[in-house]
Write a structure and sequence with these properties.
Elements lengths: L18 H7 L4 H26 L11 H5 L8 H7 L1 H5 L7 H13 L17 H15 L4 H13 L7 H18 L14 E4 L3 H5 L1 H13 L4 E2 L12 H4 L2 H17 L4 E4 L3 H14 L9 E3 H10 L13 E3 L3 H5 L4 H11 L30 H6 L2 H12 L4 E3 L3 H13 L5 E3 L1 H8 L4
Parallel strand pairs: 1-2, 1-3, 3-4, 5-6, 6-7
Length: 447
């Protein structure tokens, strides 16, 4: 049966049919479900899982932190504590019934009703990491073979090609050569160095760039060139730093992906990794992937594009003759601002390149999620309407900035672009989206 956003009382709680959930669940029995979750609790849960679950006193302070809860008029089922009670609490209760309906409902909850944004954590008096608890349930769903079809297909691409877009090695190299040729029409001596040994920078990006946004490769090549950077990209797998497996619960594949990524940089003897504008990829490489491989920190220094932009602006390695003259606002991506603390660095770059900056309220670590992260947008068309309607508060936040004069939303993250684009279109906000690299490329001196 084709994926459809259709109503069907035989399907899960929201009447949305998803092949991965339905077909996977049809293979299960209550006995198998209980066995898998019990084994997971013992092998990977430990004290942290029980401590977080048992510490919750249902005070409700997390509720107003969640855009799903706020956008759905305070539905208690959508509060962070409510999601934990419906899923992890039942799993830990040996007497609770874990049947097929439970798995289907739990799967939809943890994959499509939580973006793992961790906004609720900063308001919880006990610091309960709800994202960790939701990821634990996703891990169990993965082991049971119940995962939304679209994100599972992306995980299959990672497993087969080590990138999320089924980009073949020759297509990757062709794209690099094509973008180099395009850029050399503007800057004749520009090169995109492939497999250069001992470069200062190993540049990595995500699969959608060579597939759909090749102009971003062009722009970054120009920025590197004008900054006098010594950089390279690999010809073989390892160039894609994205990781949907981290979100499906396939941590074995996450470890494989990060191993290939790190080894590609180390084989070229690069001094550091500079990553493109992606939030979840930074989380995967800087925090999750390295730990799955047994490392507290990555094996070589690495920075997000925001940090690199701030570096070259502070060191005057690029010139901004005239600032971007349209009023802008800025969306703080969860994984690089709340998760990495790059709020001030982001604003330094914006103020150096833009003439009029209007803050979203709230902002920095208090900013609302785009609604796309945590793999939610990758669950695909069946859940699109639900996803956009579950982030009405983001639309209201953007509309408030627009009413103050903002015309452009800057979001230094691919998933944020996808989520915000859908919100802007659905709620007819009339705003334009740009990456930070778009702004820098447009304003910088290129002679």
């Amino acid at each position: 049966m084709n994926q459809k956003n259709q109503k069907d009382p035989a399907n899960n709680k929201n009447g949305i049919y998803d092949t991965g959930i339905e077909k996977g669940a049809s293979q299960l029995t209550p006995e198998k479900i209980r066995k898998v979750f019990d084994a997971l609790v013992e092998s990977e849960g430990g004290a942290r899982l029980r401590a977080y679950t048992n510490a919750c006193v249902h005070c409700g302070l997390c509720s107003d932190a969640c855009h799903h809860f706020l956008s759905k008029d305070g539905d208690p089922r959508l509060s962070p504590a409510g999601k934990v009670k419906q899923t992890v609490s039942r799993i830990l209760n040996k007497k609770a019934k874990l049947d097929v309906d439970f798995v289907k409902q739990a799967c939809e909850t943890v994959f499509t009703e939580c973006n793992l944004c961790r906004r609720c954590v900063i308001y919880c008096p006990f610091g309960i990491d709800v994202a960790y608890l939701m990821l634990f349930v996703r891990r169990g769903c993965h082991q049971l073979g119940v995962v939304p079809q679209y994100i599972q297909d992306t995980a299959h691409s990672h497993a087969s090609t080590f990138n999320q877009m089924w980009v073949r090695d020759d297509e990757w190299i062709d794209t690099l050569q094509w973008q180099e040729e395009e850029a050399r029409d503007e800057i004749p001596d520009l090169r995109i160095p492939i497999d250069k040994k001992g470069a200062d920078i190993f540049y990595s990006l995500i699969g959608p760039e060579p597939k759909f946004r090749a102009q971003l490769i062009y722009q970054m090549a120009v920025i590197f060139h004008m900054a006098g950077a010594d950089w390279t990209v690999p010809s073989a797998p390892g160039w894609d730093n994205s990781d949907m497996c981290m979100f499906t619960g396939d941590m074995e594949m996450t470890a494989r992906l990060k191993k290939v990524h790190f080894e590609a940089a180390m084989d070229l003897k690069a001094k550091r990794i500079v990553m493109g504008e992606c939030g979840h990829a930074f989380r995967s490489v800087y925090d999750v992937g390295n730990r799955t491989l047994g490392w507290k920190m990555p094996p070589l220094p690495m920075v997000h594009a925001i940090e690199f932009y701030a570096e070259i602006l502070r060191e005057k390695r690029i010139e901004i003759p005239e600032k971007f003259d349209r009023p802008v606002t800025f969306h703080d991506p969860c994984n690089i601002v709340r998760g990495r603390g790059l709020g001030d660095e982001s604003r330094y770059v914006i103020n150096e390149t833009c003439s009029t900056f209007i803050e979203l309220e709230p902002n920095r670590e208090h900013n609302f999620c785009c609604g796309a992260g945590g793999g939610v947008i990758n669950c695909g068309p069946p859940f699109k309407n639900k996803r956009v309607e579950s982030n009405r508060v983001k639309a209201e936040q953007l509309a408030a900035a627009r009413d103050k004069g903002a015309e452009v939303v800057i979001a230094p993250c691919h998933n944020c672009h996808g989520g915000l684009e859908d919100i802007i279109h659905h709620y007819e906000l009339g705003l334009e989206l740009k990456f930070l690299g778009d702004i820098i490329y447009e304003c910088m001196k290129k002679e």
